[in-house]
Amino acid sequence: MTTTTTTTAVLDARTRLLLEGPIAPTLLKLAAPNVLVMVAQAAVGLIETYFVGKLGADALASMALVFPIVMLMQMTSAGAMGGGIASAIARALGSRRRDDANALVLHAIVIALGFAAVFTVALLLGGRWLYTQMGGSGESLAGALVYSHWVFAGAALVWLFNSLAAVIRGTGNMAVPANVTVAGVIVLIPLSPLLIFGWGPVPALGIAGGAIALLLYYLGGTLVLWAYLRSPRSLLAPRFAGIQLQWRLFRDILRVGLLGAISTFATNLSIGTATALAGRFGPDAIAGYGTAARLEYLLVPLVFGLGAPLLAMVGTCMGAGDRERAIRAAWIGAGLAFAMSEAVGLAASIWPRQWLLLFGHDAAMLDAGTQYLRMVGPLYGFFGVGLVLYFASQGAGRLLWPVLGNLARLAVAAIGGWLALRWGGGLDHVFLAQGLALVVYGCVIACAIAGGAWFGRVGWPRRPAALLRHVELSAERMAP
């Protein structure tokens, strides 16, 4: 009895904080451990790249070929479908549907295993064709296939880890996933070079060792997250016995997660297309662009660190019917994300080689990466705005315009880069198209939300007072 009372009190306090606490301080308080976890998770990829880079330029190019697809899986499981999971649980708790919140855990696991199977089959069967289309050949293609086969054979571990972390974040608890991830990274730092280079009785596995270390990291994290959810400290009480799978609960996750997956696919296709366009200039250009673009990928977990509590806040407020607070939280989050992303981008454009030299010293690679960071880095703020408003839209359960914004980004990046090459442009013109695509991405999503996209048809521009009145009328129509 004591345990139940304590758990309910903690849940009520956390939900009340999302509904009533001052927005900016609350977001920053919840984001602090989440940013830590996301930086740690991004460090997983950077650690791998750092050690694999010691194997030579071909190995680095191999990683550049596979990395967009690995990030597609990572972002789909953590950001898109994970956002759908967290949003569904936050809205269930906000509307006091505790039984649905508990049942959603099993539904999330079923979805995770299904998507993991799709990634495994697709990449094991179609990996060679895909990496060839992206410009891979010779040693770089061979290394890409070795790394890809190992990683995607264990796709279920990545999906389960990110889905269980999303379940916990949906309750407003950002600390547990943070602690688990940081602890895992501490283990990964010695484990990755041990398996790549070997030591004593452990054989050198080369690029495959990096993939195996990554899978061991996800395996350990998954076990710890599940143990937490089954413990008395968890605000949810997931169980399998007596739970029947229900389409309405699948739909609650998928209606947000599937649209998010389209958006995530467009993001990674933009970078994959740019990788293929850079491949026209040789393996060194692929390595340079791929290494530089990892900084853009680093922004994804950084912004996600802020976006996850924003998603929980918006979802809880929408579930409770406080739509005015939800929209206000979105704009505060957008301002914070712009400042954070722009600071990273400006620093990278001023000191590009300091970043690139972490992963290699090949002159052609450094030149290509420097071109990218100097042209695209100053526009990273728009990427941050678009991405954090995407997470906020997940919480609101309204993802149409974030998806359209991402498709617009893909169109500008792909068509613009293709036209640049067709008209005799160089690598810098390809990168210019990538930068313009980020501006389009951020502006489309921000303008749509400013026009009332969460609450009906977009009627932009609207004055703030008119938008809030539109929110009030929408709330009145939707009230029971």
From TrEMBL:
Keywords: Cell membrane, Membrane, Transmembrane, Transmembrane helix, Transport. It comes from the Bacteria. The chain crosses the membrane at residues 35-53, 65-89, 101-127, 147-168, 180-199, 205-229, 256-278, 298-317, 329-351, 371-392, 399-419, 431-455. Pfam families: MatE. It is a multi-pass membrane protein. It is found in: Cell inner membrane. This is MATE family efflux transporter. It comes from Variovorax dokdonensis.
